């Protein structure tokens, strides 16, 4: 396999060129501050993208994860306040379980009724959001009530540097969590049979059954893990911004899907990688970041994200068709 | 007497009361190549599914190595060494050759983790065993059809089968690839593995097999050593009647008429050059040539799909500029493409809609479709072309290949075409339907005074149906034969000399 046929190499090359170009237009880009903040912005989108990648590899499409993330974080934080609980581990486990439970609803409908995942997740996402606002509450939990223990946890930094003017900038330790999760998902996809069954399902459900994969297990695994990742990301998100907003993550679905597609995953399933997805996430965040630095109006960001989806999807579709020539 | 590996005895299989298999017995000996011949819908695939344990017979038994079973489960069938290579190969296009080969073994060993080194080793051994040169690290989607088939065969051989069932294995292969596959099949046979070759292609069956069974309407109608059969006897068994093999005669009328279709100096850069041809009403002219000789481009140019061509085309003496499809249709040219499935039909739409697709303008008043008129037209077309369907509302995708082809013909005949261009009119159509379609085409040429141009790889088809055959090579018409004065052999010799 030649180097350039690997999607990751192409994406990395494009990313590098884009970084150099952006750096030329705006030298502030290469400042440590900016790079650290860029990486910080990767964390939440990146963790969600891992879940979306799993679903996309299996040939499905998930738009419910922002709702699951919101539900997991808001319910958990509400619970913490209600019980007066102080701790980090239990809330995160809680959020993961809530996400996984929501994911299992997706899996049930996809498996039992052979429904198109896009439709299932559109429905469940909307249901979960509505349920949350209608039953649990609509008020934001902001800094005056937000559990300090979570704030302290998310403040942790890997290392800090002191700049010439005496101010500090630090790289959040949350990137380590992101990298660890990414490594975990990568190893799972590449080196376990359940991971390979996801690729097999994306390659062809009929053939996967004939070979002897248990697709029920695979489908539940995919959607529960995607839900769990979303729940975890939601929890981490609110800890990092000190705010639990039940109307959060609007429009995130588009950004995350754009990042995954940009990372070379095929929307028809069966092709994609964790490394590519991480590069795609970085590229998306970087583009958004430079639009902000260049003081481009935020409404135009929508146009950019939309264009990224269309162009990246066209490019991967073209790649896959050429492969089958 | 060689020993028997598998013996189907008096198997009956019904689906909602209708017998798909009616008292079928079939004996497969160890290490033989056995052909199962039959038309589409004759019960071939039901036989495969009974053998591989997918279907449970209603009565009868399956004996393997002399031990009798009332039925098999898929797992038991595999354990007894029965492997099926399906037409779609059941491979994962997005995975590498190596992983495709190893997945079965890994799953059978109930592995949780993937050992990529053992995956590669397994794959390497499987490919070496077949003696083929395929890169195990390649993705299956990047392989040709023949390559994919080899991978499917290699995968089947990994489980040490005793019987390899191949369902229509030559459908998408070129002649050369078929020869390679036959060599491999004989090689497999040399290892004592039986092969059941399910097909409807006469010549290939006669070439490869030692014994042959013919199934028709769920009954075994003939069985014996292949040397007892020839093409016409197989056809007779498959269809239940003799297929006429008389040729088509066309007599020039006493008073000369202008040709329906007249081509002069037709040229398309890179495809064909300076072509001249006249086709009179009622004539069926065959166009033969190797793939890439330019024959398909000629057909497309005549249908307005190659606007870059130069030269003149006259219909009934009137020059027509064939720069668009619509001008071709307006001039009375109808084209039935090579791949009717992708180029010609809307598979999920009803038969009626497909038939009427090109003439909606004519049956509409002020853009509103005249429904009774449409229904009548469609119904009379279905009747005229003997399309086997209870109703015109059925989706075309549910019809057999032969009937689909008739739908395409019906559509073009409604345009009141004067010139009918047929590209591979019976590709993928079984023998019985083939003869029917030929008869329809011939009748149409005579009754409606059509000028027909028939392009085909099947020289026999041309010899049987055309009064004249033009041979094309490297974009030129190099030879014209009056069918009465030539033979299939002469034309095929000529084509071989071009290779």
UniProtKB/TrEMBL annotation, chain A:
<keyword id="KW-1133">Transmembrane helix</keyword>
<feature type="transmembrane region" description="Helical">
    <location>
        <begin position="256"/>
        <end position="287"/>
    </location>
</feature>
<dbReference type="GO" id="GO:0005886">
    <property type="term" value="C:plasma membrane"/>
</dbReference>
<keyword id="KW-0472">Membrane</keyword>
<feature type="transmembrane region" description="Helical">
    <location>
        <begin position="35"/>
        <end position="56"/>
    </location>
</feature>
<feature type="transmembrane region" description="Helical">
    <location>
        <begin position="118"/>
        <end position="141"/>
    </location>
</feature>
<feature type="transmembrane region" description="Helical">
    <location>
        <begin position="220"/>
        <end position="244"/>
    </location>
</feature>
<feature type="transmembrane region" description="Helical">
    <location>
        <begin position="299"/>
        <end position="318"/>
    </location>
</feature>
<feature type="transmembrane region" description="Helical">
    <location>
        <begin position="171"/>
        <end position="189"/>
    </location>
</feature>
<keyword id="KW-1003">Cell membrane</keyword>
<dbReference type="Pfam" id="PF02653">
    <property type="entry name" value="BPD_transp_2"/>
</dbReference>
<dbReference type="InterPro" id="IPR001851">
    <property type="entry name" value="ABC_transp_permease"/>
</dbReference>
<feature type="transmembrane region" description="Helical">
    <location>
        <begin position="9"/>
        <end position="29"/>
    </location>
</feature>
<keyword id="KW-0813">Transport</keyword>
<keyword id="KW-0812">Transmembrane</keyword>
<dbReference type="GO" id="GO:0022857">
    <property type="term" value="F:transmembrane transporter activity"/>
</dbReference>
<feature type="transmembrane region" description="Helical">
    <location>
        <begin position="89"/>
        <end position="111"/>
    </location>
</feature>
<protein>
    <submittedName>
        <fullName>ABC transporter permease</fullName>
    </submittedName>
</protein>
<keyword id="KW-0997">Cell inner membrane</keyword>
TrEMBL record, chain B:
<feature type="domain" description="ABC transporter">
    <location>
        <begin position="6"/>
        <end position="242"/>
    </location>
</feature>
<dbReference type="GO" id="GO:0005524">
    <property type="term" value="F:ATP binding"/>
</dbReference>
<comment type="similarity">
    <text>Belongs to the ABC transporter superfamily.</text>
</comment>
<keyword id="KW-0067">ATP-binding</keyword>
<keyword id="KW-0547">Nucleotide-binding</keyword>
<feature type="domain" description="ABC transporter">
    <location>
        <begin position="243"/>
        <end position="499"/>
    </location>
</feature>
<dbReference type="GO" id="GO:0016887">
    <property type="term" value="F:ATP hydrolysis activity"/>
</dbReference>
<keyword id="KW-1278">Translocase</keyword>
<dbReference type="InterPro" id="IPR003439">
    <property type="entry name" value="ABC_transporter-like_ATP-bd"/>
</dbReference>
<dbReference type="InterPro" id="IPR027417">
    <property type="entry name" value="P-loop_NTPase"/>
</dbReference>
<keyword id="KW-0762">Sugar transport</keyword>
<keyword id="KW-0472">Membrane</keyword>
<protein>
    <submittedName>
        <fullName>Sugar ABC transporter ATP-binding protein</fullName>
    </submittedName>
</protein>
<keyword id="KW-0677">Repeat</keyword>
<dbReference type="Pfam" id="PF00005">
    <property type="entry name" value="ABC_tran"/>
</dbReference>
<dbReference type="GO" id="GO:0005886">
    <property type="term" value="C:plasma membrane"/>
</dbReference>
<keyword id="KW-0813">Transport</keyword>
<dbReference type="InterPro" id="IPR003593">
    <property type="entry name" value="AAA+_ATPase"/>
</dbReference>
<dbReference type="InterPro" id="IPR017871">
    <property type="entry name" value="ABC_transporter-like_CS"/>
</dbReference>
<keyword id="KW-1003">Cell membrane</keyword>
<dbReference type="InterPro" id="IPR050107">
    <property type="entry name" value="ABC_carbohydrate_import_ATPase"/>
</dbReference>
């Amino acid at each position: 396999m030649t180097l350039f046929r690997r999607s990751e190499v192409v994406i990395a090359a494009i990313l590098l060129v884009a970084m150099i170009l952006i750096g030329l237009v705006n030298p502030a880009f290469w400042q440590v501050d900016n790079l650290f903040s860029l990486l910080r912005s990767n964390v939440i989108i990146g963790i969600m993208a891992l879940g979306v990648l799993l679903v996309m590899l299996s040939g499905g499409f998930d738009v419910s994860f922002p709702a699951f993330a919101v539900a997991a974080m808001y319910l958990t934080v509400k619970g913490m306040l209600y019980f007066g609980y102080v701790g980090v581990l239990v809330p995160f486990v809680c959020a993961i379980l809530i996400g996984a439970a929501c994911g299992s609803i997706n899996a049930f409908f996809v498996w039992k009724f052979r429904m198109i995942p896009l439709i299932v997740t559109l429905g469940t996402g909307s249901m979960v959001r509505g349920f949350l606002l209608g039953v649990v509450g609509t008020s934001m939990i902001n800094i005056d009530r937000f559990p300090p223990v979570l704030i302290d946890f998310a403040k942790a930094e890997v290392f800090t540097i002191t700049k010439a003017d005496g101010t500090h900038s630090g790289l959040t330790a949350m990137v380590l969590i992101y990298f660890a999760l990414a490594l975990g998902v990568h190893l799972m996809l590449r080196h376990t049979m359940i991971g390979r069954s996801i690729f097999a399902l994306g390659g062809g459900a009929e053939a996967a059954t004939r070979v002897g994969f248990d697709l029920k297990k695979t489908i539940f695994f995919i959607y529960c893990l995607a839900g769990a990742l979303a729940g975890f990301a939601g929890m981490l998100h609110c800890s990092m911004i000190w705010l639990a907003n039940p109307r959060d993550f609007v429009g995130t679905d588009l950004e995350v899907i754009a990042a995954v597609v940009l990372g070379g995953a095929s929307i028809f399933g069966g092709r994609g990688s964790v490394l590519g997805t991480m590069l795609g996430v970085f590229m998306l965040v970087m583009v958004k970041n430079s639009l902000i630095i260049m003081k481009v109006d935020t409404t135009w960001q929508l146009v950019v994200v939309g264009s990224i989806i269309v162009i990246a999807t066209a490019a991967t579709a073209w790649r896959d068709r050429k492969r089958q020539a | 007497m060689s020993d028997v590996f598998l013996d189907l005895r008096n198997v009956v299989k019904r689906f909602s009361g209708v017998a798909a298999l009616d008292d079928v017995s079939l004996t497969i000996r160890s290490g033989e190549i056995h052909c199962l011949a039959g038309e589409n819908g004759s019960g071939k695939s039901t036989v495969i599914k009974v053998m591989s344990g997918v279907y449970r017979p209603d009565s009868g038994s399956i004996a393997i190595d002399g031990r009798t079973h009332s039925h098999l489960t898929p797992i038991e069938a595999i354990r007894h060494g029965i492997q099926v290579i399906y037409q779609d190969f059941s491979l994962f296009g997005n995975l590498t050759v190596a992983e495709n080969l190893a997945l079965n073994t890994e799953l059978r060993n109930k592995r949780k983790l993937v050992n990529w080194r053992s995956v590669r080793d397994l794959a390497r051994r499987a490919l070496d065993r077949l003696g083929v040169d395929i890169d195990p690290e390649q993705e299956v989607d990047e392989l040709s059809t023949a390559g994919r088939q080899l991978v499917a065969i290699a995968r089947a051989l990994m489980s040490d089968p005793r019987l390899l069932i191949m369902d229509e294995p030559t459908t998408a292969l070129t002649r050369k690839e078929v020869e390679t596959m036959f060599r491999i099949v004989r090689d497999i046979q040399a290892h004592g593995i039986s092969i059941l070759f399910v097909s409807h292609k006469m010549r290939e069956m006669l070439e490869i097999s030692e014994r042959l069974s013919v199934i028709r309407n769920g009954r075994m109608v003939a069985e014996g050593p292949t040397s007892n059969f020839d093409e016409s006897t197989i056809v007779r068994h498959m269809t239940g009647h003799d297929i006429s093999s008389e040729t088509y005669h066309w007599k020039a009328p006493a008073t000369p008429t202008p040709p329906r279709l007249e081509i002069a100096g037709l040229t398309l850069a890179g495809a064909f050059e300076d072509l001249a041809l006249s086709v009179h009403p009622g004539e069926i002219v065959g166009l033969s040539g190797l793939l890439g000789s330019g024959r398909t481009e000629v057909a497309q140019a005549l249908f307005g799909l190659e606007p870059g061509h130069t030269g003149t085309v006259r219909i009934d003496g009137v020059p027509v500029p064939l720069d668009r499809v619509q001008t071709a249709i307006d001039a009375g040219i109808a084209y039935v493409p090579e791949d009717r499935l992708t180029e010609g039909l809307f598979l999920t739409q009803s038969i009626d809609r497909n038939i009427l697709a090109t003439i909606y303008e004519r049956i509409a008043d002020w853009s509103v479709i005249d429904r009774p008129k449409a229904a009548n037209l469609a119904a009379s077309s279905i009747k005229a072309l003997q399309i086997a369907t209870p109703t015109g509302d059925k989706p075309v995708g549910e019809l057999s290949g032969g009937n689909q082809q008739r739908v395409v013909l019906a559509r073009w005949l409604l345009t009141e075409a004067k010139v009918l261009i047929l590209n591979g009119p019976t590709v993928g159509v079984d023998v019985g339907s083939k003869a029917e379609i030929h008869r329809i085409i011939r009748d149409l040429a005579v009754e409606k005074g059509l000028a027909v141009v028939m392009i085909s790889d099947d020289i026999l088809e041309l010899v049987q149906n055309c009064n004249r055959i033009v041979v094309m090579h490297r974009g030129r018409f190099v030879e014209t034969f009056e069918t009465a004065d030539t033979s299939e052999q002469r034309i095929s010799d000529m084509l071989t000399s071009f290779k």
